[in-house]
Amino acid sequence: MKTLGLYLHIPFCRSKCLYCDFCSFPKRDTELHAAYTTALCNDLKSRASDCTSHTVDTVYLGGGTPTLLSPALLNQILDTIHRCYRVSQNAEITLECNPATADRDAMFSLRRAGFNRISIGLQSTHAKELQALGRLHSFSDFESTFSDARDAGFENISADLMFGIPHQTAESYLTSIQRLSELSPEHISAYGLTVEPDTPFGKMGDRLILPDEEETEKMYFVGIALLSSNGYTQYEISNFAKHGYESRHNLKYWNCEEYLGFGPAAYSDFGGSRFGNSRDLVSYVEGKKILAESEAPSSMERINEYVMLRLRLVEGLDTEAFFNRFGVNFDPLFAPVLHRYEKVGFVRKTPHGWAFTAKGFYVSNHILSELLDFSK
Ligand code: SF4
């Protein structure tokens, strides 16, 4: 029996953060939320017959802010999944959440319904930095949401931090890591800010004042060191976990395993094809198909994708697993470039293959663009 991850996109937020390029709409209309849930559940039902030879072992409700939907609607989605798909007993079932968007009763209801992992967007513990990002919550909102989740029985909690954001220094970033670590979440994601063109940040041009390159680099490296000394092992460029709490759903993406995405802007990799939906919320709610792209990647595209995603992981790429998957040897294709970067400490040989070093992760986009020919 093959395994499958399900991603359900919930595209609603209280307001739009200034850096956000995700498909999310600042809509709190409860009728729209109910209609969206109905459309999502119908979509889940209509695709279930394609998955009779799969067992769902991860479910991820992301956004957006899924907890803007009422617990009753979120439970309806989970219930539909359980009725229409074979879900393994120990499936990881994650719900993304923003501080102050789910109260204590909601947390208890969601835990009872079967959600067993919560991922909370914190970004920073400093009011000034949160305001600069356009976030509506405080650190104390995060602490309340976190403790409600714990009291409700969530034993697997993740939190997101960002570095390279306005007003931030390496010192303030370390304080954010330290305060968050003291709450002892099982998992921490720490992302560098990317300024996307179609966002308020992207449109600010020179008026957007960010920490300089040297300070941002320092944040990255001192951040990893502090997370490590606080018991969080880096397993992916931006992800850190206590032992055994790596995100099983996100590992599916990095391991190029099958997943199905539902909702606007959701992507899928299933049955040998990749396909993605448009951002057309209105059509989706009306029950229309919103497929925007679909392709059966060539074997070279699959190889490039596998190399790029596996090298995001600290354990790197296993050349024997690569051969077993693609029937071609890895080293003749990629080792000449990797050896060059090995000499300058960006890449390391592992007992089974290749991996980036911490220094290499920081410049991995550059190295990957040289390593992989995306024109094939
Ligand atoms: S909460 Fe997340 S998805 Fe919503 S606007 Fe902010 S960054 Fe975007």
- Outline, from the CA principal axes? globular
- Helical residue percent? 40-55%
Number of strands: 15
Please give the alpha-carbon distance between the first and last residues: 32 Å
CATH top level of the domain at 2-253?
Alpha Beta
> Looking at CATH, which topology of the domain at 2-253 would you report?
TIM Barrel
- Rg computed from alpha carbons, rounded to a whole number of angstroms: 21 Å
CATH architecture of the domain at 2-253: Alpha-Beta Barrel
Task: Return the average pLDDT rounded to an integer.
Answer: 96
Order of helices and strands: EHEHEHEHHEHEHHEEHEEEHEHEHHEEHH
Low-confidence stretches: none
Biggest beta sheet summary: 9 strands, mixed
**Ligands, deduplicated:** iron/sulfur cluster
Describe the structure.
With 376 residues, this protein is an alpha/beta fold. The chain has a domain of 252 residues: Aldolase class I (TIM Barrel), CATH 3.20.20.70. Helix content is 42%, strand content 22%. The protein is built from 15 helices and 15 strands. The chain has a 9-stranded mixed β-sheet with strand order 7-8-6-5-4-3-2-1-9, sandwiched between helices. A hairpin with a 3-residue loop joins strand 14 and strand 15. Helix 3 packs across helix 5. The radius of gyration is 21 Å and the shape is globular. The two termini are 32 Å apart. 39% of the residues are buried. The model has no long low-confidence stretch (mean pLDDT 96).
